[in-house]
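Intended use. Records like the one below are meant for learning the mapping from a protein sequence to its folded structure. Do not use them to infer anything beyond what is encoded.
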Amino acid sequence: MKVALVQTCTPTTLEAARDHVLPLVREAAAAGAGFIATPETTNVMSADRDYLASILKSDDADPVVVGLREAASAAGVWILLGSALIARSDGKIANRSFLIGPDGAIAATYDKIHMFDVDLPDGEVARESAIYEPGDRAQTARAGDLKLGMTICYDLRFPALYRALALSGAEVMTVPAAFAVSSGRAHWDVLQRARAIETGSFVLAPAQGGRHEDGRSTWGHSMVVAPWGEVLAQLDHDRPGVLLADLDLAASARARAAIPNLRNARPFAEPTVLPA
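Structure written out for the chain above:
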């Protein structure tokens, strides 16, 4: 199957974000992609909770969600809206991934489980738990012949999640992201390849990139990794663009047969906690 990753530099309003991403999605569909994935926070880039609370909408009213549903139906393709920030009915904010079918219907959703609460060496501080309500449920889904494991960005650093998705049948891990530049430069490639190798899965990682209107910079370098760990395609920049790759869907079964670590894992007693 031909897949496409859309790399964006998402602005700070919902309408501008829609107008930014839709031409890239249409470009991907015109290139023959049957599955198109966008990055984390495709609908808005801002860490200001008060601002987000004032503009965010439910998924059925969000212009990016609605626009991508219409685009999927018009082109007859699957679209993974990597994530959109959504106003929940309880007043909280979800960082939610949407799988949209070729009929425009929402086939599956996933709320980001792991919150990016960090103090990076370059001085950047992030506290996603102060903004978003975390999810508590892993999610697999079918997109035609693709057996997906749905994750978002910081989830990438928690391999147990990917193992659980693989054991549940996922062969293609989606990792839409908005990676910081310092951690992206150090860890982006190696983490994507590690998750692919240890689960024998494809990894599709569409990314935010560039300098955003809110002052934040993101790493870009969207990439597709095969189950044996080789990079099938990667953008070498942080600018908006479209990345195409052809997936040999039998490759996951071959990788898992060659290195059957998913089957070979054994239970073990937890180690004794070392004294302080």
